[in-house]
Specification:
alpha+beta, 2 helices, 43% strand, two-stranded antiparallel sheet
Length: 106
């Protein structure tokens, strides 16, 4: 069941990255109340590139969400349950940080 925008705003205010510029993912942020479930807690949120498009990346106590809304229409969303992740690694580049999420095999 979705949560209210006020609940999302309350959770986002508790995070350390309040000053972060979310201008590239405003549509994805507006969509967030529809995908966060009641009782789910946002632990981290950032913007990034997924499938070569600006996307919102959200980590909760249950899953990692990738959300990308189209310029005019459309939506792509993926989720990775935390119990299916075996490792997360990163590589720092000149302008970007690459994040690799590895699932359990088997």
């Amino acid at each position: 069941m979705p949560v209210s925008k006020e609940e999302i705003d309350t959770q986002l205010k508790k995070l350390d990255n309040l000053e972060y510029d979310y201008s590239m993912v405003k549509k994805e942020l507006a969509y967030l109340p529809e995908v966060i479930e009641k009782g789910e807690i946002i632990h981290a949120i950032t913007s990034g590139s997924w499938k070569a498009r600006s996307s919102l990346i959200v980590a909760t106590q249950r899953r990692i969400l990738l959300i990308c809304k189209g310029v005019l229409f459309g939506l792509e969303q993926a989720e990775i349950p935390l119990k299916e992740i075996s490792a997360i690694s990163h590589k720092i580049g000149i302008m970007y940080l690459n994040l690799a999420i590895r699932p359990f095999h088997g």
